C-alpha cells in the first residue's frame, strides 16, 4: 500500500474549551487542488496553521510523503503560504520580497535573479521588481505574495482566503490566474474559502467543514448531486427542505409522512434515522418540474400555485404543499406550463428519483 | 471652497495661535536669546567663551564624557528595551497593562529617591557587589559609584521607559502574520529579527534613541550623585559655572552648544524618518 502524498491524519485542536477542529482526516494527492469550504469559525484556518507549523495539534498527525512533519519547525517545512491579510514585507521592494526566501536560504545571486524574474512572470508582474508594496493594489500584492510563496518550489502551497479582501470582479480575475498557475506549475494546493462559487471554480476536490469537522469530501458535482448531510446540501447550491416524520426506514430508503397526512415513499435516506423521528426532504429548485399529472411513487408531491413571476428566460413559481410549506420552482422559457400556469392552480411537483434526499433531523 | 486658503482665514488662524506663540516666546525664545547674548558678551564681548570650551583639554574631556555616557546609555537602553517591548507586545494585554503600570509608577517616583537607591545598591558593600561576589564573578568589590560606570547604570534605569514606550508602539503595529510569513519563507528566528523585525522597528528605535540621547546629554541629577567630581558631565559644568562661579558667559556658551547639538540631532531624525514612520 503506498502512502498518500499528504495525509492529514485525525487532527484535533482545542483552545481551552473551544474545539477548533476534530477528527480532520484527509488524503491529498500530489498536484491536487483541494479546497476547505465552510462558514467562518469552522476550523479551516486552524487546520492550515497546523500544516504551516504555527500551531501544534492536540492530537493527530500530518504526513508528507509518508513522513510526519509535526516535529519540523515552520521555517524548515519548506511550505508556501498566501495569507488572508497582506503580508508583504513593507520595507522591501517587490523583487526583494520574492527574493527573500532564496536569500535566507543563501542561494547564489545569479540563481536568485533568475528565479525572481521567473516567479514574477508566472504571476504576470514582469518588471515590477523595483516597486514598493505600498504602491500596489491589493490584487497585485496578493500576486506578489503568491510569487514569493512559489519561488522556492514548495511541496505544498497553502492559501487562506487570499482573495477575501478584494472586490468581486478582481476576485474572479485572480481565481482564473490561480487556476492557470496551478496547471502551469502542478503544485499541490490547499485552499481555504467560505465562498462556494470560488470553491467550485477552482478545486479538484472540496472538503466541506462544519463546526471543526469535515462533513464530506468530493468533487463539486459529487457534492451537488449527492450531499451527505443537510449542511452540505444547504451550503452547496440552492435547496429547499420539507420537514416530516419518518414513517418507515428500510435499506437506506425512507417513507416520510407530512403534517397533512401526505405520504412519500421510497426516497434515498442519508445518515441514521429511526421510525418516528423527524426528517427533511431536500429538493433543488432547478431539479424539480411542474406538471398536471402526478409522477411515480416517491418522486412527486401535490402543490397549489401561489405566485408566478416572469423573469425573461425563466419564470419563478412559488407553490405551497398541502401542509403549508413553500416550494420554489424554476420554469425555463419554452416549458409547456409557462404562460398557462397561474395563481390557485392545483398541480404536482415532480423530480427524478435520484434528485431527492432525506436527512434525519436532530 | 478652499476658503481655508484665503488670506482672511489664514490671518484668523494666526490670531488663534497668538497666545501659544506668545507663551513660546516668553518661556523659550527669550531665555535662550538671553543665554546666547550673555555667552557672547560676558565677561567681555566676543567668542572667547566658546574658544575656551572647545579649545581646552579639560573642557573637551567633559564633552567627551557627556557624549560617551549618553551614547552608552542609549545603546544599552535600546538593547534592554527591545526584548522588553517585544515581550510586552506579544503578551496578553492584561499582563502588559500591569507591567506598564509598574513602569509608569517608577517614572512618577521621585527621581532623587530612585538615584539614592542606586547609590545604596552600587556602593562597595551594596547588593550588586555582594551578588557579584557571591556568584564568584568577582572576588573583590568593584568601584561602581563616583565614576561613569555608576552614572551609566543609573541613567539606563531612568531612561528605559523612554525607549520602551516608542518601541512598544512600533512593534505592536507590526502584523504578526508578517512574521509568520517570514518563518514560512524559511527565515530562522534571527533572520526574521534582522531582516524583518528590526527594519520595521527602526523608526521606533530612532525616536526612542533620540529622546534618550538628548535627555542624557543634559542630565544633571544622576551624574552629580553617582559620578565623581573627576568625571564631570556637561550639565554639571553648566551648574558649576553659573551657581558656584557665577560665570554666566561660560555657562551660557555650554548650554547653547548643548542646544545646537540637540536641534541638529532632531533635524537629522526628521530628515531620515519623516514619512517613513507611517
Ligand atoms: N488562537 C485561538 N485561540 C482561541 N480560539 C481560537 C484560536 N484560533 C481559532 N480559535 C477558534 O477555533 C475555531 C475555528 O477557528 P478557525 O480555524 O479560524 O475557523 P475558520 O478559519 O474556518 O473561520 C473558532 O471557534 C475560533 O474562535
Ligand atoms: Mg479562517
UniProtKB/TrEMBL annotation, chain B:
The keyword Cell membrane applies. GO terms for cellular component: plasma membrane. It is found in: Cell membrane. SUPFAM superfamilies: MetI-like. Keywords: Cell membrane, Membrane, Transmembrane, Transmembrane helix, Transport. InterPro entries: MetI-like (IPR000515), MetI-like_sf (IPR035906). Residues 63-269 form the ABC transmembrane type-1 domain. The chain crosses the membrane at residues 62-88, 95-113, 148-171, 196-225, 245-268. It comes from the Bacteria. Pfam families: BPD_transp_1. The keyword Kinase does not apply. It is a multi-pass membrane protein. Its main location: membrane. GO terms for biological process: transmembrane transport. Belongs to the binding-protein-dependent transport system permease family. CysTW subfamily. This is Spermidine/putrescine transport system permease protein. It comes from Paracoccus versutus (Thiobacillus versutus).
Amino acid at each position: 500500500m503506498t502512502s498518500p502524498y499528504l495525509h492529514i491524519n485525525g487532527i484535533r485542536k482545542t483552545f481551552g474549551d473551544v474545539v477548533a477542529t476534530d477528527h480532520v482526516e484527509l488524503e491529498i494527492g500530489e498536484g491536487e487542488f483541494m479546497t476547505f469550504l465552510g462558514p467562518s469559525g469552522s476550523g479551516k484556518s486552524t487546520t492550515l496553521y497546523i500544516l504551516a507549523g504555527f500551531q501544534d495539534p492536540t492530537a493527530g498527525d500530518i504526513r508528507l510523503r509518508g513522513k510526519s512533519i509535526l516535529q519540523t519547525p515552520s521555517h524548515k517545512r519548506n511550505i508556501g503560504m498566501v495569507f488572508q491579510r497582506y503580508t508583504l514585507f513593507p520595507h522591501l521592494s517587490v523583487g526583494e520580497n520574492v527574493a527573500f526566501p532564496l536569500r535566507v536560504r543563501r542561494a547564489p545571486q545569479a540563481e536568485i535573479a533568475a528565479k525572481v524574474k521567473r516567479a514574477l512572470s508566472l504571476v504576470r508582474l514582469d518588471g515590477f521588481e523595483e516597486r514598493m508594496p505600498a504602491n500596489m493594489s491589493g490584487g497585485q500584492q496578493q500576486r506578489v505574495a503568491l510569487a514569493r510563496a512559489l519561488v522556492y518550489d514548495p511541496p505544498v502551497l497553502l492559501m487562506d482566503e487570499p482573495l477575501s479582501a478584494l472586490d468581486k470582479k478582481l476576485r474572479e480575475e485572480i481565481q482564473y490566474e490561480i487556476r492557470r498557475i496551478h496547471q502551469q506549475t502542478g503544485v499541490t494546493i490547499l485552499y481555504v474559502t467560505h465562498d462556494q462559487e470560488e470553491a467550485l471554480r477552482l478545486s479538484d476536490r472540496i472538503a466541506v467543514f462544519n463546526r471543526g469537522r469535515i462533513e464530506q469530501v468530493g468533487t463539486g458535482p459529487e457534492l451537488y448531486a449527492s450531499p451527505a448531510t443537510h449542511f452540505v446540501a444547504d451550503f452547496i447550491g440552492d435547496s429547499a427542505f420539507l420537514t416530516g416524520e419518518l414513517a418507515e426506514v428500510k435499506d437506506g430508503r425512507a417513507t416520510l409522512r407530512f403534517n397533512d397526512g401526505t405520504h412519500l415513499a421510497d426516497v434515498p435516506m442519508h445518515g441514521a434515522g429511526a421510525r418516528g423521528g423527524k426528517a427533511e426532504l431536500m429538493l433543488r429548485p432547478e431539479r424539480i418540474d411542474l406538471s398536471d399529472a402526478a409522477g411515480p411513487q416517491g418522486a412527486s408531491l401535490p402543490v397549489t400555485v401561489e405566485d408566478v413571476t416572469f423573469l425573461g428566460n425563466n419564470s419563478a413559481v412559488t407553490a405551497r404543499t398541502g401542509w403549508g410549506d413553500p416550494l420554489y420552482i424554476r420554469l425555463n422559457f419554452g416549458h409547456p406550463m409557462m404562460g398557462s400556469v397561474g395563481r390557485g392552480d392545483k398541480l404536482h411537483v415532480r423530480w427524478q428519483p435520484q434528485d431527492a434526499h432525506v436527512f434525519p433531523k436532530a | 471652497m478652499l476658503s481655508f486658503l484665503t488670506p482672511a482665514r489664514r490671518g484668523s488662524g494666526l490670531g488663534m495661535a497668538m497666545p501659544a506663540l506668545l507663551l513660546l516666546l516668553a518661556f523659550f525664545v527669550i531665555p535662550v536669546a538671553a543665554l546666547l547674548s550673555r555667552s557672547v558678551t560676558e565677561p567681555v564681548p566676543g567668542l572667547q567663551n566658546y574658544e575656551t570650551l572647545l579649545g581646552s583639554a579639560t573642557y573637551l574631556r567633559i564633552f567627551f564624557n557627556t557624549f560617551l555616557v549618553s551614547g552608552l546609555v542609549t545603546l544599552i537602553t535600546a538593547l534592554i528595551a527591545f526584548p522588553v517591548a517585544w515581550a510586552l507586545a506579544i503578551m496578553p494585554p492584561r499582563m502588559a497593562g500591569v507591567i506598564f503600570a509598574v513602569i509608569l509608577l517608577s517614572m512618577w517616583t521621585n527621581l532623587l529617591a530612585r538615584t539614592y537607591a542606586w547609590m545604596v545598591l552600587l556602593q562597595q558593600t551594596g547588593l550588586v557587589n555582594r551578588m557579584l561576589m557571591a556568584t564568584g564573578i568577582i572576588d573583590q568589590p568593584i568601584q561602581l559609584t563616583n565614576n561613569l560606570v555608576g552614572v551609566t547604570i543609573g541613567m539606563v534605569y531612568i531612561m528605559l521607559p523612554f525607549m520602551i514606550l516608542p518601541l512598544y508602539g512600533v512593534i505592536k503595529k507590526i502584523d504578526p502574520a508578517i512574521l509568520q510569513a517570514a518563518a514560512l519563507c524559511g527565515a530562522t528566528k534571527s533572520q526574521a529579527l534582522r531582516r524583518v523585525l528590526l527594519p520595521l522597528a527602526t523608526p521606533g528605535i530612532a525616536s526612542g534613541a533620540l529622546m534618550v540621547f538628548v535627555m542624557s546629554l543634559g542630565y544633571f541629577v544622576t551624574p552629580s550623585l553617582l559620578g565623581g567630581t573627576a568625571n564631570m558631565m556637561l550639565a554639571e559644568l553648566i551648574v558649576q559655572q553659573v551657581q558656584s562661579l557665577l560665570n554666566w558667559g561660560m555657562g551660557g556658551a555650554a548650554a547653547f552648544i548643548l542646544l545646537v547639538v540637540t536641534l541638529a540631532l532632531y533635524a537629522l531624525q526628521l530628515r531620515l524618518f519623516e514619512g517613513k514612520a507611517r
